[in-house]
Design brief:
The complex is a heterodimer. Chain A is an all-beta fold. Helix content of chain A is 0%, strand content 54%. In chain B, strand 7 and strand 8 form a beta hairpin. The relative contact order of chain B is 0.33. The chains are: A mainly beta, B mainly beta.
Chain lengths: 114, 114
């Protein structure tokens, strides 16, 4: 069975600092991995995804993530945080190849201070 | 292109009642997935429908059911409501074919059970 663990329910950074949100997964099959962001009172928006191929994945808004099979990790990074990045971030693994049935982590709330 | 719409946005019910939530996917999308979001359990996958057939199912009791119509619109029903069913219910649509589909989420229906 697939599962996702996000380390750290809250992360606080200063504007301009590096953002690092951690995600570890467990999957009995080659995983399809996703990062979604949720702004207050809104639905989720896809940041980036890994299916196959290049292990360094670039997404929207300057975010990227690296798939490391040996570490079963898919950490999300952004070199320089903006105030607008404050939101809740979810890592997810897909139940199947279609990616339409996702197992989510508990989420990490990112706070950005000026 | 119109996004995913969910109706109603807010709902208040009492224990023992039943409720039906509706989701209209993005035009052309054949897959609709449903998720429950609560502060304690986070985001949990309920089920997914593709071309009117349930393709994936999460670990929820039989009180939770759904269906999809020929125009891809989907409904989910919860019977015999319990206090613990209070949650934000999100639906997401996608093309549903191929690998690692991007899901587009609606704003959710917030259900309160009294």
């Amino acid at each position: 069975a697939q599962s996702v663990t996000q380390l750290g329910s809250h992360v606080s950074v200063s504007e301009g600092a590096l953002v690092l949100l951690r995600c570890n997964y467990s999957s009995s099959v080659p995983p399809y991995l996703f990062w979604y962001v949720q702004y207050p009172n809104q639905g989720l928006q896809l940041l980036l995804k890994y299916t196959t191929g290049a292990t360094l994945v670039k997404g929207i808004n300057g975010f990227e993530a690296e798939f490391k099979k040996s570490e079963t990790s898919f950490h999300l990074t952004k070199p320089s945080a903006h105030m607008s990045d404050a939101a809740e971030y979810f890592c997810a693994v897909s139940v199947d190849q279609a990616g339409t049935a996702l197992i989510f982590g508990k989420g990490t709330t990112l706070s950005v201070s000026s | 292109k119109a996004g995913v719409t969910q109706t109603p946005r807010y709902l208040i019910k009492t224990r023992g009642q039943q409720v039906t939530l509706s989701c209209s996917p993005i035009s052309g999308h054949r897959s609709v997935s449903w998720y429950q979001q609560t502060p304690g359990q986070g985001l949990q996958f309920l089920f997914e429908y593709f071309s009117e057939t349930q393709r994936n199912k999460g670990n929820f009791p039989g009180r939770f059911s759904g269906r999809q119509f020929s125009n891809s619109r989907s409904e989910m029903n919860v019977s015999t409501l319990e206090l613990g069913d209070s949650a934000l219910y999100l639906c997401a649509s996608s093309l549903g074919q191929g690998f690692g589909n991007e899901q587009f989420f609606g704003p959710g229906t917030r259900l309160t059970v009294l």
